[in-house]
Write a structure and sequence with these properties.
Length: 317
């Protein structure tokens, strides 16, 4: 218990440091952007009065350290600032886009876990046989296809030629659960590459675990094959797979810009694209902080889960 508490304390401290670093990095990168944000937002033929008003609204007339302090204090209270394009709170943009993105991520993970883990265990159980070679070949081929190309292909076949599914989510708004057909193609695209990487990682982990000395010792004691696979080998193979799953969830919540843009899903990726197009710096900053904190939190959780499943892996951490 002492070793576990020490490991958790170190990881929590590291997570706090990483979160602070994310906030500082986002602010520094925004400050390093070329040109004057107020002039860019004022339009092609800027009026000096409008430029001055924008600079005042963005607090650009104040020193950078003061603006950083005010922004950091606001973040601690859940205040991400105000949109320059619409005057709405940035937190409202995040709340509006988080629902569709979370729905896509939840559906993808709900399918990813059983399919990815199941394929990996099945391939490891039949190592070197036809099933193993087939799973490895198919997962490698699917992983090699870019998401955008796969998305266009699925739209062409299932939406335009066969007419089975809607090509985009246009007209459905944020009520995607009420129109499940609009979710099929985006979820398939999001599922394609993660399920391949998770299955291959799980296969490698299971093969290594089954070849380990403690599994050989269990066989000598007469332990059955199923108990060896699922009681002794599986927990140790799950540790790296859990970390990969956390990275996948992070990608689903923070990096689905291509899929949301292709299928016109009103999620966080679409909010980010619109904010970049409108040069709405506070919205971009708020989303960057949210994405960074999600990455830190998910990787912290994955480290704790991996340490719980395989404590020996955390000795050097």
């Amino acid at each position: 218990m002492t070793a576990l508490r020490s490991f958790v304390a170190r990881r929590l401290l590291l997570g706090v440091v990483q979160t602070v670093a994310v906030v500082l990095l986002v602010f520094a990168l925004t400050e390093a952007l070329p040109g004057d944000a107020a002039v860019a937002l004022a339009g092609d033929d800027p009026d000096p009065a409008r430029i001055a008003a924008i600079r005042e609204a963005m607090h650009l007339d104040r020193p950078a350290w003061e603006r950083l302090g005010d922004w950091a204090v606001g973040l601690l209270h859940g205040d991400f600032g105000t949109s320059l394009a619409s005057g709405r709170p940035v937190s409202q943009y995040i709340a509006d886009g988080f629902g569709p993105t979370l729905l896509l991520a939840a559906l993808t993970v709900a399918l990813l876990v059983p399919v990815g883990f199941g394929l990996g265990v099945l391939a490891a159980r039949h190592e070197g046989r036809l099933i193993d070679r087939l799973i490895s070949s198919v997962t490698l081929a699917v992983y090699a296809v870019p998401e955008f190309a796969l998305g266009v292909l699925l739209v062409t076949v299932f939406a335009l030629q066969l007419g089975w599914l809607p090509p985009t989510a246009v007209g459905f708004g944020t009520d995607l659960l009420g129109h499940p057909a609009a979710l099929v193609l985006p979820v398939l695209v999001l599922l394609s590459r993660p399920v391949c990487s998770l299955a291959r990682l799980m296969r490698a982990g299971m093969i290594d675990a089954l070849a380990s000395p403690y599994v050989s010792q269990a066989r000598r004691y007469g332990v059955t094959g199923a108990r060896i696979r699922y009681t002794h080998a599986l927990p140790n193979a799950l540790a790296p797979a859990a970390q990969q799953l956390a990275r996948t969830v992070d990608w689903l919540l923070s990096g689905v810009v291509v899929v949301e843009a292709l299928y016109v899903i009103p999620g966080l990726g679409t909010v980010l694209l619109n904010a970049v197009a409108e040069r709405d710096v506070p919205v971009v900053q708020g989303l960057a902080v949210v994405f960074g904190v999600l990455t830190v939190a998910l990787n912290l959780g994955a480290d704790l889960v991996a340490h719980r499943l395989a404590p020996r892996a955390g000795v050097a951490a």
